[in-house]
Design a protein that fits this description.
Blueprint lengths: L5 H6 L14 H7 L9 H28 L4 H21 L5 H4 L4 H23 L8 H32 L4 E6 L2 H14 L4 E7 L10 E2 L2 E5 L1 H11 L3 E4 L6 H11 L5 E5 L13 E3 L2 E7 L5 H36 L5 E7 L5 E7 L24 H8 L7 H7 L3 E3 L9 E2 L2 E2 H4 L12 E3 L1 H4 L9 H16 L3 H17 L6
Parallel strand pairs: 1-2, 1-5, 2-4, 5-6, 11-14
Antiparallel strand pairs: 3-4, 6-8, 7-8, 9-10, 12-13
Length: 504
């Protein structure tokens, strides 16, 4: 996985890699300005399909058990039904019936499912015979479950096929993709994608720094949209899912230059192996359709992890709002009673993928001296801060209204802190001071984070401080787990008491 060292990046800084970039070409602008429907993760669709299918089988088995056996011996039949259902799910996965490509087939998936189901029932019968437990289990129940389960499985698979085909027509299962590179190599790559990806890849265009002699404006019907430097801004606006690089492994300098620009994006980056003369074992490659690729960078917190984090955010935010409501009401009263102006302060900040969001805070400054852009950082004994403001800033109570941002889906409970647009370190905007700064935005920003519990919060008057904050944020993104979020959440109150020397 590619990663820029933030400390080294300050030394050999390459300006502009994180900014949206210049004006896009007319073709790129036309694509970027089109509305995009939210897509569905293939892994999540397959996972949900497995859960529903297992539920169908188990419910059919229990329904027959209730009607025929009147719930007699539940201690035997319920575990047997659960075990058989689990074994069936394993068999269906071994038969490769749980993939988007399989769901699109009409008869093949049903045939494989029925064969898998029949094999599972035979294994259960054999196990009952081997353990001399055949007399304990009703043969009528087992035979009826097999027949009714077969009907239920086929009906479910036909319904699943209809849903998947509809989503395919709507483009919900396609990955919006661009290719870096051009010429004959890109033409070969595009041909491989179009012939083997089952329509799950939506190729939008090419980006290449070479001139038209080596990189024509149209390759295999796919237009060239600009140079690699244009791709950052285009990817953010066009909501790109996948970048495939068509360059030989020997072009190390070009690859590194390109990756240093693109690694900050929340996309999957793959290096096509179709140009490589080296041959590795199959485990070295992953595949996009029939195209072998090397995995260079992955979108962080995707598929099921994205759902788990979404649930974590919503549950924690709701509980925190209920528990902390007395503190928030008391803070609002104190602010209103001691200074003129609104209770809340709103400020534009960068969110996920550099999108602008408006966060909520308790107002901690006098209205007439408020600095919405944060062009001047708050310092110790800053006269712009109210007496109540000093306390709520030091204790981070001023951040509590951002729980509403979490419920709106703009923030996470845990993540890199969103910074004000004009925040500076040593009179340099943060993204000018640290290359790779915008890599923090590959995930949603959070109310608390890995940097904050390690004391890197508050004033950033030196480049070293913002470097440390960014480095901690990138560590969090690359090592995220739900347990890490729980740890950070648990350590946040401790850090507020023990590591608050920079908070004022």
């Amino acid at each position: 996985m590619f990663r820029v060292d933030t400390k080294q990046a300050v030394i050999d800084h390459m300006s502009g890699t994180g900014s949206p970039g210049g004006k896009l070409s007319d073709a790129a602008e036309g694509i970027a300005s089109q509305p995009v429907e939210s897509g569905y993760s293939h892994k999540v669709v397959a996972g949900v399909a497995q859960l529903i299918e297992a539920g169908v089988l188990f419910v059919i088995g229990m329904a027959i058990f209730a009607l025929y056996l009147n719930f007699n011996q539940p201690e035997l039949y319920i575990p047997l039904a659960l075990g058989t259902t689990l074994l069936a799910n394993i068999a269906f996965n071994v038969a490769r019936t749980h993939s988007i490509a399989a769901y699109r087939t009409l008869y093949l998936q049903s045939l494989r499912v029925l064969l898998g189901w029949a094999l599972v029932i035979l294994l259960v019968v054999a196990a009952l015979y081997a353990f001399k437990a055949g007399e304990l289990v009703s043969r009528v129940w087992l035979a009826t479950w097999f027949l009714a389960g077969s009907v239920g499985l086929v009906a479910f698979r036909f319904a699943l096929r209809a849903v998947v085909l509809r989503w395919s027509r709507q483009g919900r299962l396609r990955r919006r993709t661009v290719v870096v590179g051009g010429g004959e190599a890109a033409e070969t790559l595009i041909g491989a994608l179009q012939s083997g990806s089952s329509g799950d890849i939506e190729l939008l265009g090419l980006f290449d720094d070479r001139d038209e002699k080596r990189s024509p404006p149209v390759v295999a019907g796919i237009p060239k949209l600009g140079k690699v430097s244009d791709l950052v801004g285009f990817s953010r606006r066009a909501r790109i899912d996948l970048i495939i690089v068509s360059m030989p492994l020997s072009a190390e300098a070009r690859l590194l230059t390109m990756l240093r620009q693109l690694w900050i994006l929340p996309v999957d980056i793959r290096l096509s192996a179709h140009m490589s003369k080296l041959r590795f074992t199959d485990k070295t490659y992953s595949y996009i359709g029939n195209l072998p690729v090397f995995e260079i960078a992955d979108r962080p917190i995707s598929d099921w992890n994205r759902i788990f984090k979404w649930m974590f955010d919503k549950i924690v935010a709701l509980i925190a709002l209920i528990v902390l409501m007395p503190v928030m009401i008391g803070t609002a009263i104190a602010i209103k009673a001691t200074s003129k102006g609104p209770v809340f302060f709103r400020q534009k900040r960068h969110g996920f993928n550099n999108n602008l969001i408006e966060i909520y805070k308790f107002r901690s400054m006098y209205v007439e001296t408020a600095d919405a852009a944060a062009s001047r950082l708050v310092t110790r004994q800053d006269p712009r801060v109210t007496p109540v403001g000093r306390f709520i800033r030091r204790t981070s109570i001023d951040e509590l209204p951002q729980l509403l941002n979490v419920l709106k889906g703009e923030l996470s409970i845990v993540g890199p802190r969103p910074h004000a647009l004009e925040a500076k370190a040593a009179n340099k905007l943060y993204h000018e001071a640290v290359e790779g700064y915008f890599g923090r935005h590959k995930v949603k920003p959070g109310i608390t984070g890995w940097a904050q519990i390690h004391g890197w919060r508050g004033e950033t008057d030196t480049i070293e401080k913002i470097m440390q904050r960014v480095d901690h944020d990138l560590y969090y993104i690359e090592n995220w787990t739900l347990l890490l979020d729980l740890y950070i959440l648990a350590m946040t109150p401790v850090s507020l008491l023990t590591k608050n020397e920079n908070a004022f």
